[in-house]
Amino acid sequence: MTIGISDLAFATAHQVLDLQQLADVQGIDVGKFYIGIGQSQMSVPTADEDIVTMGAEAAAQILARHGSDGIRTLLFATESGIDQSKSAGVFVHGLLGMGEHCRVVELKQACYSATAALQFALGIVARDASEKVLVIASDVARYALDSSGEPTQGAAAVAFLVTADPALIEIEPVTGLHTDDIHDFWRPNYLSTALVDGKYSLAAYLGALEGAWNEYQSRGGFAFAEMARFCYHQPFTKMAVKAHDRLCKIVGADLDKDQRLAQISASLELNRRTGNSYTASIYVGLLSLLEHDDADLAGERIGFFSYGSGSVSEFFTGVVRPGYRELLRTARDAAVLDNRRPVDYPRYRALHESVDAVQGADFETAAETTGPYRFAGVVDHVRRYEKLG
Ligand code: CAA
Fold first, then answer.
1. Hydroxymethylglutaryl-coenzyme A synthase N-terminal domain: which residues (predicted)?
2. Per-residue pLDDT for 358 more than 80?
3. Which domain, by its residues, includes 111?
4. 253: CA distance to ligand 1 center in Å?
5. What is the dihedral of CA 29, 145, 191, 310, to 10 degrees?
6. 195 and 97 in one domain?
7. For the chain, which end, N or C, has fewer CB atoms within 10 Å of the first or last residue's CB respectively?
C-alpha cells in the first residue's frame, strides 16, 4: 500500500509589507533582505486574522474538493498557539462544520511539528487504509521590533489530506531523525515574540541536517543522486540554499552553483513572499516546487528536511504522482499573494505593538480581513470566530 498526500492547499495573511520599507526605516541596503536572506516581502495579519483564520482558509479548499466524510482525525501543527488547553484545530473543525466523529489535536515542536503530524497521519492510515487525516499547519512568525529576526517574520498556513493511494505525492517509509536539547530559538509562555540566537540557530540547523541525513543513510535511505529535487524548512529562503550547499558537500556531489540551485529554486518562490511560516514553511515549499518547477516532476523523488528549533529534525523522501498538476491551485495561490493589501511601516508597527496591548482582556477586533474567516475578538475569555460571506 502507498500512503501520502492527496491534496495540498495554501493560505496566508491578507496584508503585505515589502521589505524595502523595513530597509528604508533601518537605513540599510535592501540587498541584505532581497539577496542576503532571500526575502522580498512578509505577510502581515490584520487584527482579525490569526492561525485559525488562515488554517480554516487552507482547509476549506480541501473540504470543498473532497468533503469531510471519512476524515476522522484533524492534526493542527503550530508554534503560535492561541490557547494553552484547547487545540486551534477544534476552532477550525467548528468553523468548517466538520462531523463530530473526529479526533482533533494540536502538535508542538517548533517548526518541525507539521512533519510529526504527517508521520502520525501515515501511521493511522497504515493501520486502516480507509482512514483520511487532515493536517493543518499554520503560524504567525513574530520577532521583536528592531531585532535581527524582524525581516524574517511572516505568516501562512497549509492544509493537506493524508490517504492511501495518494494523488499528489507518496511519502516513503525510511526517515532519518535528529534531536538535540538546545536553545537556538524558543518562545517562553510570557512572550508573544520569539527569542533567537541567530547565528547559532543557523549552525544548529546545518548540524541537524547532517545528523538526520546520516541516520537516513544508515537506515538504508536512497542515495542523494536518486533525488531530483529538495525541499527544506525555510525560515528565510537563503537558509534552504545554505542547507542544500551543505548537503551537497556532505555527500560530495559534483554540482556547480546553478545545478544546486536548480534542485531547490522553485521551492523558494512562495516563501520569499510570505516570510517564515514556521510549521507550514516546508509544505509551502513543497507546494511552491510543484506549482513553479517547469519540469514534469511526475515520478521524481523529492528529499525533505524538516527542522524545528530546540531541536527536532527529520529527513525523508516522497515521490510525485502522475497527474499532480491537475490538483494544483496555482493561479488562485498567485492571486492570493498579489491581492494582499500593502501596509506601510507605521501601520505594520502599530499592528505588531497591538498584539501585546490586548493580552489578557476582552476586546473586539476591527473588521479588516479580506479573507473568508475572521477572528472577532474575545468575550468572557472565549475567542470568537466568524465565517464571512
Ligand atoms: N546585499 C546582499 N547581501 C547582503 C547585503 C547586501 N547589501 N548585506 C548583507 N548581506 C548578506 C550577508 O552577507 C549575509 O549573507 P551570508 O549569510 O550568506 O553571509 C546575509 O545578508 C545576512 O546578513 P547578516 O548575517 O549580517 O544578518 P543578521 O546578522 O542581521 O541576521 C539572521 C541574519 C541571523 C538570519 C537573522 O535574520 C535572524 O536572527 N533570523 C531569525 C533566526 C532564523 O531564522 N534562524 C534560522 C535557523 S533556525 C530555524 O530554521 C527555525 C526557525 O524557523 C526560526
1. 3-164
2. no
3. 3-168+328-387
4. 25
5. 0
6. no
7. C
pLDDT digits (tens, 9 = 90+) for 219-237: 999 999 999 999 999 999 9
Choose the residue to mutate in 34, 35, 37, 306 for probing ligand 1, maximizing ligand atoms within 8 Å of C-beta. Answer: 37
Q: How far is the CA of 202 from the centre of ligand 1 (A)?
A: 9
Indicate if 92 and 221 belong to the same structural domain: no
**Bridge-partner residues for 195, per DSSP?**
186
For residue 259 and ligand 1, the question of a CB distance below 6 A is answered with no
Q: Are residues 289 and 211 in the same domain?
A: yes
pTM assigned to the model: 0.98
What is the whole-number distance in angstroms between the Cα of residue 366 and the centre of ligand 1? 34
Which cell numbers hold the place of 342? 500593502
Residues forming a β-bridge with 232: 305
Give percent above pLDDT 90 in the chain. Answer: 98
205 touches ligand 1 (CB under 6 Å): yes
**Residue 193 CB contacts under 8 Å (≥ 6 apart), including other chains:** 142, 143, 144, 147, 187
Of 323, 350, 376, the residue at which a domain comes to its end is 323
- 140 and 180, same domain (yes or no): no
Alpha carbons 129 and 166: distance in angstroms, whole number: 11
Average pLDDT over residues 269-294: 98
189 in a known ligand binding site = no
- State yes or no: 242 annotated in a binding site: yes
Nearest CA to ligand 1 atom 31: 148
* ipTM > 0.90 (yes/no): yes
The pLDDT of residue 357 is 79
Domain co-membership, 337 together with 306 = no
Q: Is 324 annotated as a binding residue?
A: no
- Final residue in a domain of this structure, among 306, 323, 340: 323
CATH of the domain at 241: 3.40.47.10
Domains contained in the chain, number: 2
* Pocket lining: 379 vs ligand 1, CB cutoff 6 Å: no
| CA 236–ligand 1 middle distance (angstroms) | 8
State residue 59's pLDDT score. 98
pLDDT for 360: 74
Question: Measuring CA to CA, which residue among 53, 43, 46, 57 is closest to residue 11?
Answer: 57
Query: Do 291 and 344 belong together in one domain?
Result: no
DSSP H helical ranges for 111-233: 113-127, 198-218
pLDDT at 54 (0 to 100): 98
Residues 30 and 130 in one domain: yes
pLDDT reported for residue 111:
98
